Amino acid sequence: MPTLQLILAAAMTMQQSVATPAVAPALARAQAARAAARPALAALTATAPRLATLPALEGLAALDRLAVLDAADAAGAANPVAATAGVRSADQPVAQDPTDSLWRAARSALNRGEYESAANLYGDLMRRYPNSARAGDALYWAAFAFYKTDDAANLDRARGLLVTQERRYPKAGTLHDANALLARIQTALAKQGDQQAAMWLAQHAQQARGGDTTPAHGCASGDEEDDMRLQALNGLLQMDAANAVPILRQVLARRDTCSQPLRRKAVFIVSQKHTSETEDILLDVVQHDPDAECREQAVFWLSQVSTDRAVTMLDSILLGTPDEALREKAIFALSQQQAPRARDILRAYAENPNAPADAREKAIFWLAQEHSRDNVAFLEALYAKLTDPDLKGKILFSLSQTGGTDTGPWLLEIALNEHEPIELRKKALFSAGQRGANLAQLTALYDRVQNTELKEQLIFVYAQRREAAAVDKLLDIAKREPDKELRKKAIFWLGQSHDPRAAQFLLEIINQ
Fold first, then answer.
1. Is the pLDDT assigned to residue 478 strictly greater than 50?
2. What angle do CA 97, 103, 105 make, to 5 degrees?
3. Mean local confidence (pLDDT), 366-371
4. d(CA 119, CA 105)
5. What pLDDT score does 183 carry?
6. CA 459/CA 139 separation, integer angstroms
7. Residue-level pLDDT at 220
8. Are 324 and 355 in contact (CB under 8 A)?
9. pTM of the complete model
10. How many CB atoms lie within 10 A of CB 77?
11. Of 48, 322, 359, 475, which has the fewest CB atoms closer than 10 Å, so is most exposed?
């Protein structure tokens, strides 16, 4: 075993505090010894597999990790003085922190995404230097590396490491981060059926229901990545509704400022628990929660609750709230309801001259998204009643977005109606083109309209179509249109075409 002893001695030499001039030679000797020993070690383990369980050979497994030290110590080999920590001057050396090499190697492996290697290196540091300043933080980073592997066995190891850190290193700088990491690990384990993790999540989620009345300036950050309470609440998504909903109710009953992030998270989780209580909880939040965002989110998630009571509440919010954001959420929630009454409420709101114009526009948009022929007919009729050009323009745009209904002919009628404002006629033309209106009708319009702006808009509409007939019309305009500016517009759009006829025409113009 002389070779093995040499390797172990070289490895220990690398990790101990050494004088500056000895770093590079020690590293070189260790690397050479490692390389020389590998064939012998391979042969030894091949002929005697049971030897692999010996403690001495277990220690040799760490030697493979010397490779990750190479890059970290390369600079030190070239310039030992600059690389060694704590050197005040050439004749006043200060001992190097013995954990430096392992710490740098572990960090390097973590940065490369070699998570198991990083976890093992951090673990080595803690085992070999349990009383060092870095030992507690090494446990956190080992747990983090194991967590990143997303392997059930490694997640369990990570949990154990964080428990050890809390018990043995209560003053570690990473202890606060470790709490949030533990919550994420427990959530991941609960997803995989770990009962211990599920119980932990239930217990810690219940902590969020307490009556903390700390002033706002003393609250936790509310950062989900940093707050164990929020992570624990997230874990309730994995629990059955019977156990999760009572906890969520108590969280949402809080009214202190510090619980705002918890209540906002709880509203979402309640919305995912489809129980007989879901509607009551969300309606209670809408009516009584002091936080505007909580109320808005509760209204938004009522879109998933298809009951007459929910529709009534949404109608009440829509007509009664002065809050613009809350109105918008109520309009969306109503648009997602399947009940005919919800559709009737939106139609009445779109017609209501006393309602805010921006909210009416949103109601118009969502009515058009239903892809219902009845809604299309309603919006076409509403267009004729309106005087507000913005609302009329919203109808034109919204109908251009509908699917499954033929609105092209109606849009062309608006475009040809000389009593309509020119801007609305232009919007109608564009919408007709986007809706795939009959190209023969569109090209025939050019000679029927006299307004230059409408002709320019038609040229643009033709340019957006991919049919050969659209290129034919642009070529015709470029050759025969008396208005020079309109000809230029047609030539410009022909230049954007991939049709070979357009390229040939442009070449002819150039060669004139």
1. yes
2. 125
3. 87
4. 11
5. 81
6. 69
7. 61
8. no
9. 0.56
10. 16
11. 322
